[in-house]
Specification:
The chain is an alpha+beta fold and 366 residues long. It has six helices and 24 strands.
Length: 366
């Protein structure tokens, strides 16, 4: 019995040894485990301060290429959810501060970025309220809230209505219902353009503040308001689409590129305009990509033409439409009739839009 047990033990030990050597020579491969990083959307957060370190509420934060926007909270923070990975251009704007653009990278952990805005002197946006008296009335003051007499108030376009403020800075014009641009100017102050939408059953009252300006305007600046009045007078509403701020708010517009598209379609443009069209800002010479502008900073938008401005390089424009088509030799004629050479700054936006399908668009900031 002992011999049998000993033999069995020896055999068991031998078997275990053989199995161990076989396992060493032919190791068992476990299933490969692959850990994949989460490719899903991530969040972006940040804080906005001024140069003194104060947290800023109500700053407009935008990601133009994604058509996303947010507003900072009382503690200066902002947040975007569901963003794709990559580096995004993010813009911060607030009235009274210079805009700032930074690039924020969103990776597997999300992304963060902080802004520091520089205060700049700027007049407050016009405040427009309803009035029981029909027409347009208001008060004009300077940035110190001192009322300004002798300010010219001109409802630009075919109405031909204009007046000057009295000794208390007040004015009144019996304007009928409709959408209008109102040019407000006084020597040694910067000009301002305000948009108003006057309903048929009531009037509008506007309070405007003007910034101090140079005693003598440059040749380019001195043509901006005459150019505005000229094109608003000579073109009928069939070929111009004016979007006041009030009208855009009722439409639920956030991005001015949507207005650019709407004007293009209403003007009979084929397909859709290029997404990166440039527009003239405040009559020029500043231009800006329309897909970077939001309603927060815009007072009104003018979209012209029936075919779209594709831009030009060297050729002088002929008499032709607010909407034109560009060939190899420059700008070809189109309708409606409009002498595009009357503006000193149209060439700037034409060069920027060279090779693109873009309407001729003017935007006026608040």
């Amino acid at each position: 019995m002992r011999v049998r047990v000993g033999i069995l033990g020896w055999l068991a030990a031998a078997a275990i040894g053989l199995a161990s050597r076989a396992a060493a020579q032919n190791p068992v491969r476990l299933p490969e485990v692959v850990i994949k990083a989460d490719p899903g959307p991530k969040a972006m957060t940040g804080v906005v301060r001024d140069t003194l370190g104060f947290l800023l509420e109500g700053v407009d934060i935008t990601i133009p290429q994604l058509q996303r926007r947010a507003t900072t909270r009382a503690n200066g923070t902002f947040r975007f959810d569901d963003l794709p990975r990559g580096t995004h251009e993010v813009r911060a704007r607030k009235i009274g501060y210079g805009p700032q653009v930074i690039n924020i990278k969103v990776d597997s952990l999300g992304g963060t970025g902080d802004f520091e805005l520089v205060p700049i002197p700027r007049s407050l946006p016009a405040v427009i309220t309803s009035a029981s008296r029909l027409g347009l009335s208001g008060v004009v003051a300077d940035t110190a809230f001192q009322t300004l007499p002798g300010v010219e108030v001109n409802v630009v376009g075919a109405t031909g209505m204009k007046t000057v403020t009295d000794s208390m800075g007040r004015f009144y014009l019996p304007v009928h219902s409709g959408d209008y641009l109102v040019a407000i100017s006084k020597p040694q102050f910067k000009d301002k353009v305000v948009s108003v939408s006057i309903p048929s059953d009531s009037g509008r009252q506007v309070r405007v503040s003007l910034m101090p300006g140079p005693a003598v305007k440059s040749p380019g600046e001195s043509t901006i308001l005459p150019d505005l009045n000229d094109r608003m007078t000579r073109l009928t509403m069939k070929y111009i689409h004016l979007f006041t701020r009030e009208r855009m708010e009722k439409m639920g517009i956030d991005w001015i590129s949507n207005i650019n598209t709407a004007g293009w379609v209403q003007n009979g443009g084929r397909g859709l305009p290029s997404p990166d069209c440039y527009v003239l800002v405040d009559g020029g010479p500043k231009i800006e990509r329309v897909d970077r502008l939001t309603i927060d900073e815009i007072e009104s938008v003018e979209v012209y033409g029936s075919g779209g401005v594709v831009g030009y390089q060297k050729s002088q424009p002929k008499r032709g439409g607010g909407g034109v088509v560009v060939g190899k030799k420059g700008i070809a004629d189109s309708r409606p009739t409009m002498d595009m050479a009357h503006s000193r700054f149209l060439r700037l936006v034409g060069q920027a839009n060279y090779g693109k399908a873009c309407p001729l668009t003017f935007v006026w900031t608040r």
